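Pipeline run #58 for the internal structure catalog. This entry was flagged by the ingest filter as a single-chain record with no existing model, so it goes straight to prediction. Upstream metadata was stripped on purpose; only the residue string is passed forward. Reviewer on rotation: M.T. Logging verbosity set to normal.
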Amino acid sequence: TNKRLADQVREQQRTLFNIAMTDQLTTCHNRHSLSEYAPKYIKDSIRYEYPLSVMILDLDHFKQINDEYGHTRGDQVLSQVGKMLMATCRQGDIVARIGGEEFLIMFPHCGINDAATKANVIREMIEQAEPGGLHVTASIGIATLLNIHGGDFDRLYKAADNAVYVSKESGRNRVTADPESLEADSMLTARHA
């Protein structure tokens, strides 16, 4: 009886943990979960000296989708995009919904050029999939952890977020890399050439 009760308690704890860490609509990690995992990913990247990139994806004109088709249709779009991102990313990548129509993906062992390739694949995939039966596009910004970020997730996030802003200002439905990440990568490549 005691073992059965202990197993039930453990199962309930696991269920509550999953509820607390998961965005219910998309099944992605939520902001709370991201704040738990991001510092660990950054520490590991610095300690073991491997690249870590962050991608922020913002669905274009999402308010218009909600206004024109209703929130239920908007929720379908978000749910399908979330599931698509989860299915596309590798085990070990963190996919989180961080705002209404905004997602963040952490790519360990991935430099800025590989992150750009992945981001373009994801951008094209969303456009072709027509989530919710609608033509949906995404503006994406990417950045790689650099010394200037000082191991601070917020600084890395800000670099990727600024890149998203450039994507939106440049006409949307595009990927923009943080210029400092690109510069650091080209300097590293030149050193190894």
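catalog note: The CA atoms of residues 41 and 47 lie 10 Å apart.
catalog note: The mean pLDDT is 93.
status: ready for reviewer M.T.
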